[in-house]
Amino acid sequence: MDRRHRPSPAFLAALALSGVAFLPGPAASARVPGPGDKPPAYQDAYEKGYAASADMCDKAPSFSYEESDSWDRKGWVDGYNAGHAAQC
Length: 88
What we know:
Keywords: Signal. This protein is mainly α.
């Protein structure tokens, strides 16, 4: 008998609900949570700020920026603030 093993519907449902991604791509490789509707400069700076916050837990818990600041500054500050809240 040639019997093929197929995943059960219950297993597939549990896998879908777990949020595990097996497909390569930007969503699977994302390391840092962040808003996706901002310019690339903001997103890059957000990741840097988020990562930096782990090494700066002894610093201020949050920073601010002016409306006129660049996307780079806004991204880093938002990333730092989110990272500090999550990691420290």
